[in-house]
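Hello,

Our lab assistant flagged a job as stuck in the queue for most of the afternoon. It eventually completed. Since we weren't sure the result was trustworthy after the delay, we are filing this so someone can double-check. Below is the sequence as submitted and the structure that was eventually returned. Let us know if re-running is recommended.
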Amino acid sequence: MKRRRVFSSAQGKSEDINISPLIDMVFILLIFFIVTTVFVEETGVEVTKPQAASQIQLEKNSILIAITANNNVVYGGREVGLNGVRGLVKRLVQEEPNMPVIIQADESVPTRILVRVIDEAKLAGATSVNISTDEG
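-- returned structure --
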């Protein structure tokens, strides 16, 4: 005959719930949401954009290049200059092939500088180059 041992709680202790797997799951979800978040990168400067009657809303994930009233070309808060646009756009387009380029030009910027920035972006391989405006 087999003997069985029966353990009983003489003091009536309650069992604790182990919440460590719950904490692990919350951290895993937190890491997942942080990794999959899309961050919008601003240009870092304020420009007075011209008004346009025909405008469309573009996606948030794009390359934002600003041209200030002093004709400085800025990306991510630092000046890249006209000659730095091609290398910058080329590097970013290689990471994300169909990412549009949006140029935020001050309304006092000469057309020749705006056209040069557009040309540099297209020569770097950008498929879509747009100009940011205010609603008119």
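-- support follow-up --
The delay was a queue issue, not a problem with the job. The result is valid. Strands lie at 51-52, 63-67, 73-75, 78-79, 101-105, 129-131, 134-135. The longest helix spans residues 20-36.
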